Structures are given as C-alpha cells and as structure tokens.
C-alpha cells in the first residue's frame, strides 16, 4: 500500500525529483561541485516537503468539506514550517552553498508543484 494515494501528487513528486536530478547534473558540470550539491539540496527540500504534504493529505479519512479543509490547512502549515526549517539548516551549516543555484532550483521545483492542479486524479478510459 502506498503512503501517497493522490495520483497527481505522485506524478508531481516524480517530476520534481527528475528536474532536481537534471539541475544537479547541469550545475555540477557548468558551475562546480558545490553548485551541484546546492541544486540537490534546493530541489530535495521541495521534494521532501511535497512528500510530507502528500502523506498528510493521504491520511485524511473524513467525508465532510470542513474536515478536508482542516487536513489541507494542517498539511500546508507543516509544509511551510518544514520548508523554512530546512532552508535555514542549509544556509546555517553548508558554508559553500551557491545561494543562486540553491534558491533557483528550490523555486523551480516549487513551481512544478502547481502542476498538480492540471493532472486528473483518475484516468478515465472509455
């Protein structure tokens, strides 16, 4: 049984991970090793927080709109706190971080999260 039940969130997580890997390879080759590590950290923060959000939302078992809204807001709050904490940890403890690459990759993968709105939840076949 999968921890994440939402098909759009699974697809978005895969795309975020793929874009992160492409950014790591590109920045490792074009900038330097620290650029690649910075891209990895920036992208994986977004992937990790999206995964946490998806897991919390997938555990929702209520059937009312209010319960669904509370679950979504709780998941978003956890995602924001985790994001801020992880960004702070990287800037505090990784002295060789390339801030442009790190924040750029993070923003790119966060923008990919909005793709979830465009993906149908269930594939319908006729």
Mean pLDDT across all amino acids:
89
Run of helices and strands: HHHH
**Share of helix among residues?**
over 70%
What spatial form do the alpha-carbon principal axes imply? elongated
* Structural class by secondary-structure content: mainly alpha
Instruction: Please give the oligomerization state of what you see.
Output: single chain
Strand composition percent? under 5%
| Biggest sheet descriptor | none
The number of E-state strands comes to: 0
What distance lies between the first and last C-alpha atoms, to the nearest angstrom? 27 Å
Radius of gyration: 16 Å
How many structural domains in the coordinates? 1
Number of helices, counting only DSSP H or I runs of 4 residues or more = 4
Low-confidence stretches: none
Describe this structure in words.
The protein is mainly α and 126 residues long. The chain has one domain (7-116). Helices cover 75% and strands 0% of the residues. It has helices at 7-30, 33-58, 65-93, 99-113. It is elongated, with a radius of gyration of 16 Å. The two termini are 27 Å apart. The relative contact order is 0.21. The model has no long low-confidence stretch (mean pLDDT 89).
Can you lay out the helices and strands and say which pair or pack?
Elements: H1 7-30, H2 33-58, H3 65-93, H4 99-113
